[in-house]
Amino acid sequence: MNGRLALCLVALAATPPAGLLGIAVIAGAATTGGAVGATVAAAAVCTYAYPDADRIAATMRALTPEPVGPSQWADYAALAGIDPTTVAWADATTTQRDTVLDAAVRSLLYTHTPAAVTTPPLIWWYGSVPTDDDTNWQTAPVPGWHGDLDDYLGALIDTYATIDDGDNSPHECIPPHATACPQPANLNAILATIRHLESGNNYTENHRSIAAGGPTGSGHPSGAYQYLASSWDGYAGYTEPFLAPPTIQDARATADVAAILDRYDGDPAWVPVSWYVGPTGAERVRTGQWSPAYIPNPAHNTISIGDYQTRWLDHYTTVALPTAGTTPNECPQGGLAAVAWAETQLGAPYAAIDPYRFGTPVWPGGTLTGSRGNTYTFAAGTAVYDCSGFVIAAWRAAGVDLSAQYGLYGSQAFPTSPLPEVHPTAIAPGDLAVYSPVNDVGHIVMIHHIDPDGTVRTIEASPRPGVHIGTVDWSRVTSIKRPGGDRQ
Q1: CA distance 228 to 151
Q2: Which domain, by its residues, includes 102?
Q3: SS3 for 432?
Q4: Quick one: which H or E segment has residue 339?
Q5: By CB neighbour count within 10 A (0-12 exposed, 13-18 middle, 19+ buried), where does 93 fall?
Q6: What is the DSSP letter of 358?
Q7: 324-352 per-position pLDDT tens digit
Q8: CA 43, CA 399: separation in Å to the nearest integer?
């Protein structure tokens, strides 16, 4: 794939690309990002680390004259509320076909792993996300395109960065995963951040309340923390949140924040996710069923889960924590951020099987057969990885999406990938060592550190030990790749 990417590097606080209440957000009360203090800076590639469904669909329309063919119409028309047996593809209007494409891209982006810019068009034209040993997808045909699927995705990546989809709302970046650099959990700072984003610290905010005749579909949020009327449920004898005095509203929020922190091991990065999409939604994000790009209840919300979380953490780390007298943690960047996240997965088992090999969605339970005929048995909720899925997940947690930016899904693509190469004498944590195949199966490992005696240690997912710290096998290394730069 040729061309160069227009990258947008933004400093942000560390957070998972994920996260009780189903509480609505008032978009006008949210900040738009702002400058982030150096102590919490963490670079993220905002153009690609945050896939936008509408922009993907607009890009697909720009690349081929008719992206919705008969087979896609049959497979996806129902997502737009159209019965393909009643309305045939040949009789469909341009508007109907556009509606089907938009609905399908949103569905594919939010429900498939990895949630990358290239994932919906890849499934659209190829039928699935490639397995780790799939060598056929790159040469698959794309109707109406002058080259193969590999060329198409290269053009899509470049066009996506610049196309105007008519949506000028800001989209933030996904910073490094919070488990790699969790921020301190200060209750006063958490409450202050919720109040700031939800209501602008207005305990009597009630313009969408039942009392004010607010729209039913909004859930009637009110008060400083914008509890939905149903979530508030007559707490302390007050029919709506804004009718309760500040002490009562604070007490309810304090109890709910404590429950969230207890559920997510004290990590405050899960507070905004739980606050925005409720307990069920937060679990769907945690397990990979929902992408951070998902916009809940779009009739009343205009920003995605990840947007909201990023804005929340920006205010929390740069304003609320310092005001509360707590120093934010300094977070690693680049390769160090990828390694820091990878360390949190030590001990996770190996499984070369889609879609679980990227860590999310988690294992559903029971025994399944992988792409190479191997069977795997794990308890429900287990995060599993194969070698390429692990390094892709680690670098995505650091803000670099190897699938979206470089078209990388499996180990077989790394040797010829456009990732910049570095000389072995310049090796650094986070670099990727590409191994020669054994029995036609490739392998990819990430550099963890270099011992004082010069021994290069890896962190990798391998069949028997799973995710572990190992040692580079120089007899198999064919190249060293460094993520994070422009495609060459």
Answers
A1: 48
A2: 53-160
A3: strand
A4: helix 334-343
A5: exposed
A6: B
A7: 999 998 877 889 989 998 999 999 999 99
A8: 7
SS3 label, residue 340: helix
Residue 165: what pLDDT? 59
- Are residues 240 and 344 both part of a single domain? no
Tokens of 319: 């304003």
CA 378 to chain CA mean position, Å: 24
Q: What are 457's strand-pairing partners? A: 449, 471
DSSP per-residue string spanning 130-153: PPTT--SGGG-B-TT-SSBHHHHH
What lies within 8 Å, CB to CB, of 387 at 6+ separation is 132, 411, 442, 443, 444, 445, 460, 461, 462
Q: In whole angstroms, what is the distance from residue 62 CA to residue 160 CA?
A: 10
**Coil, strand, or helix at residue 166?**
coil
CA angle 349, 352, 353 (to 5 degrees): 105
Tell me the backbone φ, ψ of residue 361, rounded to 5 degrees: -65, 155
Q: Are residues 429 and 362 in the same domain?
A: yes
Residue 250, pLDDT score: 98
The answer as to whether 105 is a domain residue is yes
pLDDT digits (tens, 9 = 90+) for 54-87: 889 999 999 999 999 999 999 999 999 999 999 9
Is 4 inside a domain boundary? no
Helix axes of 53-63 and 119-126: crossing angle, nearest 10 degrees:
50
Establish if 328 belongs to a structural domain. Answer: no
Instruction: Give how far the C-alpha of residue 184 lies from the chain's centroid of Cα atoms, to the nearest Å.
Output: 22
d(CA 271, CA 40): 18
**Under DSSP, is residue 363 helix (H, G, I), strand (E, B) or coil?**
coil
Does residue 141 sit in the same domain as residue 231? no
Q: Same structural domain for residues 365 and 438?
A: yes
Which 3 state secondary structure label does DSSP give 191?
Answer: helix
Sign of the torsion angle spanned by Cα atoms 332, 335, 338, 344: negative
